[in-house]
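Issue: ligand-bound run for adenosine-5'-diphosphate - logging full I/O for the record.

Environment: standard queue, default settings, no custom constraints.

Inputs:
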Amino acid sequence: MSISVKNLSKHYDKQKAVDSISFEAKPGRILGFLGPNGAGKSTTMRMLTGYLEPTSGEAEISGENISTHTIEAKKHIGYLPENTPLYSDMYVKEFLNFIGDAYNLSNLSARVDEVIKKVGLTPEQHKKIGMLSKGYRQRVGLAQAIIHNPAVLILDEPTSGLDPNQLVDIRALIKELGKDKTVVISTHIMQEVEAICDDIIIINKGKIVANNSLEGIKKAHQGSSLEDIFRKLTA
Ligand code: ADP
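Outputs:
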């Protein structure tokens, strides 16, 4: 199992932002992590990626415990946070070299060229990040997330704020990356889930209220639309 989460919780004072959730995620599948605003999606992702210490519970990434073996676990994770913080004054290649260098990658310049091609950044590769459209900035975010070829990709609302054409392109790219990785993507766009996810988890007020394959959840709700199922479970 690439991701294994057991009774993971994060409390802020009395609020249980994430309340004892458990789940697993497998390679070659894209897991949609859905929930209304404030449900606990980002908090969970930040715990999975080692950026936030859980109040209790455990998460393992490729068999490495993220709290006790953070450095080893992080080697297996590519993370695209919400509102990707990128260095807008840096050139695309300069930035990717900088990130790759932090991972101590050998053949760095060949790897940078490879990821630029993979995420479709070739036409913009000589520009400053600040000059790029939001869609291309997301590609830079994805490039930095995959540069060390991690087994697991955690993408926090990777398509928010993109125009319809950019949306289609980035979704296709995520689908492609999901062929041989374990991908967890948070979103509240049901169309997106239908377009790219194999499995879904719905989280509401810090708790998991559904964990199933996309087909499975529809069957369990007599073929209702995902919108209706989502509304019912998060009301
Ligand atoms: P989502 O990503 O599903 O929109 P979040 O994980 O960002 O939800 O937030 C879950 C809940 O935790 C929200 O109620 C939010 O206000 C609260 N929360 C998140 N971060 C903090 C923090 N640093 N301090 C206090 N409360 C927080």
